[in-house]
Predict the 3D structure of the following.
Amino acid sequence: MGEAPLRKGGGELKELSIEDIAVGVFTSALNLRERALSVQETWLRDFPNALLIGGWKSDPELRMVSLGPNVGEDYASAHEKQFLGLLELRKRFPGASWYFLTGCDAYVYADNLRALLAGFDPGMELLIGGHCGQTAIDGERLIFPAGGPGFALSGALVEALAPAIPAIIGGWPAEHPELAGACDVAMARLAKRERGVAVTFADGFYSCPPYRYPGNPYLDGIGNVIDRPVSARPVAFHALGIREMYLLRRGRVLRAPGPIARAYDIGFRFVARRFRTKSLVNRISRVLANRSRARG
């Protein structure tokens, strides 16, 4: 699919509320606790039906679900977290019209996501995302939505895919070891193979911060190259620092970081990972964002 027409499906759509969207955010309470907290204290507040999705380690102070002792806390665990997390969302929010999956270094605009999804019929089997890439699987071209900023699956598609998910959890890394960590590719492959569903491209999903556009080309749903400024109504940005999460929450326009901001981001990324701090970086980032707004 390319840029599909809105209100596809032919029927009258009910008004979509934010409660109709179930959100899962992959993270790690062990290695990415500060990042998880930055999501919880910023944009995740806007989604009542949302969970941080972790591996074996739980954290009672985080709005999260632990997937059990067999799920890791490293980058390679993203594959299991995506599919097991989706099943957990389906279990906890069975009436959801849409399921949205993303990572803990993304910022999602709830109103813009809701407005986008309101134009589609959740009774149809749809995989909606943007900033697409392409690869070849078993000799066939596959266009997939970037997992960094996130993508949405309709309730109908999740119900149709659910029986096939257990098999792909173990089968994907074994069959495609070179793509074992590419959970976005795995989801697109599953939807295409099981249901014949290709990605429906939507504008507004960005794999990088806003100051990287234009100049950071990506594909639409049929493989056309796009290189243009950020949409007036962005849905999500990815690859953000904790400092930038709080700036966006306070309505600031992100600009390419200067030397001081870069030093801050690098230094506190090291501190958070090396010493596994719980909230230090968030507290400082929140203060800096508040001061930035006051000066603006």
